[in-house]
Amino acid sequence: MNTTIELNTPLTLPCGATVPNRLVKAAMSEALGTLDNRMTEGLVRVYQRWAEGGIGLNITGNIMIDRRARAEPGNIVIEDDRDMPLLKKWAQAGQSNGNKIWVQINHPGKQCPKAMNKETVSPSAIPFRKDLQMMFGTPRALTEHEIFNIIERWGRAAKICKDAGFDGVQIHGAHGYLISQFLSPHHNQRTDQWGGNAENRRRFVLAVYDEVRRQVGPEFPVGIKLNSADFQKGGFSEEESLEVIQALEARGIDLIEVSGGTYEAPVMTGATGHKKESTIQREAYFMDFTDKVRKVSKVPLMLTGGFRSLHGMRDALNSGGVDLIGLARSVAIEPELPNRLLDGNEALYPVKPLTTGLKAVDGSGLLEIQWYTRQIKRMAKGKNPVPNEHPVLVLIAYLFESGWGLFKARKLRA
To answer: CA 32, CA 380: separation in Å to the nearest integer?
Structure first.
């Protein structure tokens, strides 16, 4: 006899750890670090707010593993224990209501603005498409020695997070960052053991997982965010994604969050036209793909993007294709939303498309990211989000702040 899964139903992961309910604050890039990429009290305040809001699992946003490779101004970098006191305080804040908190750890590869770092690296020296080359430089191909160093850094960062008291880590393997670049036949044109065919292209992500697991042990939760596809010509395909998922499951991965897209095809923001009728009906962007995953894998799955209603969330959980519901933009404007949902109420401020009237801006995903980041920064200051803030005002503020931030980052880059 089947049992109905409710939003407040706990989930036990393969490693034995439990998530207290089915709602997850998905990773967003808060950009709340210092100029030299250190921890701040603002992150403690934000995650305390989300914990009090009832979320079952907090996943932090886009923490870098190398100070030489930062994705944007304000990134936190974890490569040693210099910030251990504040890291411990952050972990405790994220757990303060009986919640769990994981750290998302990442390396951007070539996907970071020109001014951020001395250089960018990638599996191969493949430039961005022409309209993005003013913002993103052509990377240098990694040497094999550098590849092994980066793998070790992922494990080290995970171990520091464990020592600080966090409940788990999520490896960022999606959205066009370094792992995603290794998986893509477009970005990875190597001819050594790290490229050339699908098996070699997934060697890097499996090596990263193995090193993380080696350093944190078998009982510490380790998940990954993975693209269903890149939605780029010649990019990572659904067929290859299914193969990666099966390989990770065989190694003992605890949770896979399904996503899709890159900076060149930002379908993860909902800003592009990749919406089938089935997506509209089922709300979530990648439910069709999770159905395919379920035919080949029993690994716990998390899905983020598009959920708007209690009905959509409950249907997703009871379809058998999804185990956890990821919330991102909705909790950036309504941090108490999980408590409302758990009580059977709908959102007070449903997520709506943001527009400035500038086609290039509205279609890029940039506005979506910056508008919601601004709401998170309000909470970091102890203020409330402004759900109806005008997008044009946010865009103007972003252009000023990012220009100044990149100028200062250039002076500090290592």
So the answer is: 8
Return the domain boundaries, the chain: 11-352
β-bridge pairing 222-227 and 168-173: parallel
Residues paired with residue 258 on neighbouring β-strands, in sequence order: 226, 303
In this predicted model, what pLDDT tens digit does every residue of 23-52 receive, in sequence order? 999 999 898 999 999 999 999 999 999 999
Cα gap 54→57, rounded to integer Å: 9
State the Cα–Cα distance between residues 125 and 179, nearest whole angstrom.
Answer: 15
pLDDT-based confidence at residue 280 (cuts at 50, 70, 90) = very low
Predicted confidence (pLDDT) per residue in 79-128, tens digit? 999 999 999 999 999 999 999 999 999 999 999 999 899 999 999 999 99
173 neighbors 241 (Cβ within 8 angstroms): no
CA–CA dist 84, 69 (Å, integer): 21
The architecture (CATH level 2) of 11-352 comes to Alpha-Beta Barrel (3.20)
Residue 247 phi, psi (nearest 5): -70, -40
Length of the chain: 414
State how far the alpha carbon of 278 is from the alpha carbons of 54, 288, 289, 304, in Å. 30, 8, 11, 16
d(C-alpha 117, C-alpha 358), whole Å: 29
Of 209, 219, 211, the C-alpha closest to 256 is 209
Task: For residue 304, list its beta bridge partners.
Answer: 326
User: What is d(CA 173, CA 190) in angstroms, rounded to the nearest whole number?
Assistant: 19
The whole-angstrom separation of Cα 108 and Cα 177 is: 5
Q: Is 205 within 8 Å of 183 (Cβ atoms)?
A: yes
